[in-house]
Specification:
mainly alpha, single chain, 210 residues, 0% strand, 8 helices
Length: 210
């Protein structure tokens, strides 16, 4: 039976998604402070700083999906991180951040879903970052009034590149590092690695056994 065929998350998977959401909720707040600092450093171009760092706010989605390999795990993790930002850290965006998080999570998870959560190579992670960043961009553009600006294309290009690098490829680096520690052996990704060559596990179909 493939991992997505199971109807419900197991308890340890629920706990992991919650922990990831909390940890990355605080990390996302740190990234916001970095954004503010970068915006000041960039001077007149400071408004573009958010696009430079946009990918960093996508990290938890692909990480959750890669570890658990279950539908909606990335979306849930992103929303939980946004809840932490809004409720506990007082994000100035407010509840609208939850919608942005849902879009980011959906975009980030879709490339994995299209493979039925079976392929986790570099290209899938890159597509995850690009789609997550691109999808939320159009919503943000409406909210921020970017449509009609001459630099709209520049904004989109910067955000997609950031998504690929910071939201997709960096997520794979972090996941691979966690796998090497052995702390994920009891999750779907650990079972996959144990059944295949560690150098090739991300490029072969994944099957979950009970």
């Amino acid at each position: 039976m493939t991992a997505p065929d199971r109807a419900r998350l197991e308890l340890r998977e629920i706990v992991l998604v919650v922990v990831l959401g909390i940890v990355f909720g605080f990390l996302y707040w740190v990234f916001v402070q970095t954004w503010n600092t970068l915006a000041i450093a960039m001077g007149p171009a400071g408004d573009l700083a958010q696009h430079v760092l946009a990918g960093s706010w996508l990290l938890v989605g692909p990480i959750a999906v890669a570890i658990i390999r279950r539908p909606f795990s990335g979306v849930i993790a992103e929303i939980l991180a946004a809840v932490v930002e809004v409720v506990f850290l007082g994000s100035p965006v407010g509840p609208l951040l939850l919608l942005s998080a849902a879009l980011q999570g959906a975009g980030s998870e879709l490339p994995f879903a299209l493979t039925r959560y079976r392929r986790f190579g570099w290209s899938t992670y890159a597509a995850s970052g690009a789609l997550g960043a691109g999808l939320v961009f159009f919503w943000t553009a409406v909210r921020m009034g970017w449509y009609g600006q001459d630099i709209l294309g520049l904004r989109l290009g910067m955000q997609v590149v950031s998504g690929i690098v910071l939201g997709g490829l960096l997520a794979k680096v972090l996941v691979d590092a966690l796998v090497r520690t052995g702390v994920l052996d009891n999750f779907a990704i650990g079972a996959s690695r144990q059944r295949t060559d560690p150098q090739k596990a991300d490029d072969v179909p994944v099957r979950r056994v009970h």
